[in-house]
Write a structure and sequence with these properties.
The complex is a heterodimer of chains A (274) and B (352). Chain A is mainly α. Chain A has eleven helices and no strands. In chain B, helix 3 packs across helix 4, helix 5 runs parallel beside helix 6 and helix 9 crosses helix 10. The longest helix of chain B is centred in the last third of the chain and has 17 residues. The chains are: A mainly alpha (274), B alpha/beta (352). Chains A and B meet through helix 1 and helix 4 of A and strand 1, strand 2, strand 5, helix 2 and helix 3 of B.
Chain lengths: 274, 352
């Protein structure tokens, strides 16, 4: 079968020019975003549940734990709580990113994509765009619930808007970490059990729900300096007024850093053969 | 988008000396094969033989450690992007979005192949029609039967009308009726001139669909040729019997080993013993009847038949083609085929 007199010389093929590749990259990512939105429209309960959970957190901390947590902010605990809960919800929303990517990996959907003339980054980008839209929805719903239970922005609407944008960008940064987790684990069950565990210490050992000063000294050192606290303090200053500068650049460094580190890691995990 | 058809007159698929290891596991130890344009190659082997690894290398999912692999003359390592323009892949599981309808699945793939909205829509319609999915086109794919999901998955691999198609165990896990339906679909497909590489652990599937068969085991090609030439390697007929009392299986095997040309194959589940007997067909039957009678072994059936690929596989590898991992439906259908084969030949109870 292969015993030929002359050795076979492969055909050489040029890569398409980069403007074309960029255009296809964008259109591939948007086609996949569209696919994810369609899926959610078919399984609306997924969206509903992903919003019910943070709303429950709001109610729990507002009415159950809140009374026992002393804080020194203008509007009392509910004002202290809301920026923290929004950040926590945005972070937890990234669970969906990890689980969907792991599922697609496991079911061979991603193998098919990798065998197609598609941009390598499209699966990741399409997913992140869709998850950003989902996160915007979550943040808006929680803001409305927050207003219903007594939260008020104390610092004007522009900083309020910046705070919400910060929350979404923070969620997006956590999504890149989750995307890496999902693509690296490649198994829905493992992601199901591991996908949130790493987020618990980060979101609870932070300034999200209680002042850091109420923690023991050794824990304070972690809680004060970890990214979730830094971003939440920034959001709190935006919502309620207070010094911005330090937290602003620190959060910016963290958010950009997470994306810069984890997007290439996730793309590499995507390309890694199964 | 479309790259000009390359000037390539060689085989559609060429694999030369390809090796691949995963740590200490040598999945492929130097594979050579070629598939001429418009023909079907059946890549046959047990679980873990390296079939899927060959497909993954040819579909650019996995780089080979050494050797080279060409699809339509394009090197999979040097120009993976161009190879992806040429191929379609349907893997072992149905890679479809279950929440979406069959139509939506195909349309989104059309857009990912940059067909543009209108052409993507038209192509989806065509595929739904030719795969008999029009009626269920607008239902979520999770409501489809296993067979329908596989058909949709196969349709999905054809969205861009690939010149070369790879099907990795297209009927694994399907019930017998869906398998036969799938075979019809695949036969239709290749009559249109597509080059197909098909992996399977089912000998009857390779026999049914493939122009050429390459048998691999432990990462090596152990035989290649048409189903007929492979069967000829057995060199004659096979004597097959089913005994009544399973406890006497070992005795029956011992008796038969004195009659056949090679060690008999024993299928404990079916109570079956088979052995190649060369050209001595009827004389071997008489011999077997006498010997079994003398040993006091009762049979349910005894037959002379042409060798199947099962026999070839057993002779080549020293073990059966199907491993324990196979599903129940599978061994069920295998037993059924055996029964059919018996029914066609010697009536039951000849020796009792």
């Amino acid at each position: 079968m292969t015993d030929r007199a002359t050795p076979l010389v492969p055909v050489t093929v040029d890569q398409p020019a980069w403007p074309l590749r960029l255009r296809f990259g964008v259109s591939d990512a948007l086609a996949l975003t569209w696919r994810d939105l369609l899926v959610w429209s078919r399984v609306p309960m997924f969206l509903v549940f992903s919003i019910v959970q943070p709303v429950m957190f709001v109610l729990l901390f507002r009415y159950v734990f809140g009374g026992a947590i002393p804080v020194r902010v203008p509007g009392g605990y509910v004002d202290y709580l809301m920026p923290g809960i929004i950040a926590q919800s945005a972070a937890f929303a990234s669970f969906g990113t990890a689980i969907s990517l792991a599922r697609e990996m496991q079911r061979g959907v991603i193998d098919r994509f990798r065998s197609m003339p598609m941009a390598r980054s499209a699966v990741l980008l399409g997913r992140l765009v869709a998850d950003t839209l989902r996160m915007i929805l979550t943040v808006l719903v929680i803001m409305i619930v927050g207003y219903a239970v007594g939260f008020r922005f104390q610092n004007g609407w522009v900083p309020a808007l910046v705070m919400m944008v910060t929350a979404v960008v923070f969620g997006l940064a956590v999504c890149t970490v989750s995307a890496f987790v999902g693509l690296a684990l490649r198994d829905e069950e493992s992601v199901g059990s591991f996908g949130l565990i790493w987020l618990f210490p980060l979101t609870f050992v932070s300034a999200a729900f209680v002042p850091v000063t109420s923690m023991p000294g050794w824990l304070q050192a972690f809680a004060t300096n970890q990214p979730v606290t830094i971003v939440i303090e920034e959001m709190r200053s935006l919502a309620l007024g207070g010094p911005l500068a330090l937290h602003a650049w620190q959060s910016a460094v963290w958010l950009v850093g997470l994306v810069v580190v984890f997007v290439p890691l996730a793309v590499r995990a995507y390309r890694r053969p199964s | 988008m479309t790259i000009s058809p390359p000037t390539w007159n060689g085989p559609s698929i060429v694999v030369e000396g390809v090796t691949k290891s995963f740590g200490d596991v040598h999945a492929l130890c130097g594979i050579d094969l070629a598939v001429e344009r418009g023909t079907v190659l059946g890549l046959l082997g047990p679980n873990g033989a390296g079939k899927t690894t060959v497909v993954k290398i040819l579909t650019t999912l996995l780089p080979p450690d050494s050797g080279r692999a060409l699809v339509e003359g394009i090197d999979v390592v040097a120009s993976p992007g161009a190879v992806r323009e040429m191929i379609g892949l349907a893997g072992q599981s149905a890679a479809i979005q279950e929440e979406l309808t069959g139509r939506e699945n195909l349309e989104i793939l059309g857009r990912l192949y940059h067909l543009g909205r209108t052409r993507a829509r038209r192509r989806a319609e065509e595929l739904l029609e030719s795969f008999d999915l029009t009626v269920s086109a607008d239902r979520p794919a999770k409501t489809y039967s296993g067979g329908m999901q596989r058909r949709l998955d196969l349709a999905a691999s054809l969205v861009a009308q690939p010149a070369v198609l790879f099907l990795d165990e297209p009927t694994t896990g399907l019930d017998p009726r869906s398998r036969i339906g799938m075979w019809a679909v695949i036969r239709d497909l290749v009559s249109g001139g597509t080059t197909l590489m098909l992996t399977t652990q089912y000998l009857d599937e390779a026999d049914e669909l493939a122009d050429e068969i390459v048998v691999i085991d432990h990462g090596l090609v152990i035989a290649a040729g048409t189903a007929e030439t492979l069967k000829d390697r057995i060199g004659g007929d096979v004597l097959e019997l089913v005994i009544t009392d399973r406890a006497r299986l070992a005795d029956a095997a011992r008796v038969m080993s004195g009659i056949g040309d090679a060690e008999p194959a024993v299928d404990g589940e079916a109570g079956q013993v088979s052995v190649p007997v060369g050209p001595r067909g009827s004389r071997a039957v008489i011999q077997a009847v006498r010997a079994l009678d003398a040993a006091g072994i009762e049979t349910e059936g005894l037959a002379i038949r042409r060798p199947s690929l099962d026999d070839v596989f057993l002779m080549l590898t020293g073990h059966a083609a199907e491993s324990d991992a196979d599903s129940d439906t599978r061994s069920g259908s295998r037993r059924r085929r055996r029964r059919e084969r018996r029914a066609r030949s010697v009536p039951e109870g000849t020796t009792s």
